[in-house]
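Quick one: examine this chain and its backbone structure tokens and tell me how the chain folds. Here goes:
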Amino acid sequence: MRSPALRHVLTHLITPLLMCIGMGLAYMGAFVTPEPHHMPVAVVGTTPRAKVFAQTVKDTAGDKLDVRTVASRADAVGLLKSREVTGAYVPSAKSPELLVASAASDMGATAVEKAFTPVAARQGVPLKVTDVAEPVADDPTGQGLFFLLIALSIGSYASVAAIGAAGAALPMRVRALLALGVSAVVSGIGALLAGPVFQLAHHDLASVWGMAWLYSAGILLIGVGLHTFLKRWTTLAMMVLFVMLNFTSSGGLFRPELQNGFFGTLHAFWNGAGFVEGVRSLLYFGDDGLSRNLWTLMVWLLVGLVVTGVAALYERPRHARHAAGHAGTATGTTATATHPAPRLTDEVDARTAEEETEETVGV
């Protein structure tokens, strides 16, 4: 290709086109056809009749439902609040009842209701639906936490370009400290949105901020560290890790039992799921499962620290050579005629950093 300018433009178009493909595959693969896959439900009763009924439901649903029996309604409520089941059916000849916990997943509660409504209809009786864990009135669908996750993620991965590219001349320890500071600001904005602005969190706002900081700091440290190796391709890597795979597996819209096995598997250990499920545990389920989700976020933060540490070791010889070159220039060991080269290199680096920053923030 003869035109360097055209080649430059076409090279920069690779990233958005790959993002287009990746976002389409990820979002459409995760969200377009939500169907139950081994959704755990319970039937209340231990009599032979109840067990036969549970087996009949299982046989009818096939792989869509995993049905168990529990001894009492209270046991069923306990399973719902620990999010071990998505719904529980209480058989009755006159007034059958379906227990759900919509704060865990509004879509899951809807799916369970669709599964059991025909069961009651065949008996010729109405189905009573009882929600044992409702989200707050300010977040009636319980999906506000998912959109909070999006805000935190964008604030975090977009800041990577500013720190990694524009601050490339800074030592890694300074960039790492900047990442920790920016994550405190991003999480503070998230806490304001979750608390005073939209009132998603009616209590434990400080703990929500803490989890938001763990989440944001992990992303920023991973991104700043990766930038040392990937340069302008860091944008694409961050989008894959913290948008395409992250949002789709977080459980913010559909929990894993409504998705295929790939996204359901990611839900078990990805950082977005750790944040969303951790905040749900804190706000709606009496901290049940909170410690496991905190560990998930801390492991991702540890990964970020390791990546930045490796990047710092990788950069050390280069910075030493750079410092030696500047020292030689300052003492006159470099000829005057060669002085424009470092300035030209600095201008190219600055232009590259500006392009990368604009590309990332634009996305």
User: Anything to note?
Assistant: The longest strand covers residues 39-44. The CA atoms of residues 124 and 348 lie 76 Å apart. The chain is about 65% helix and 5% strand.
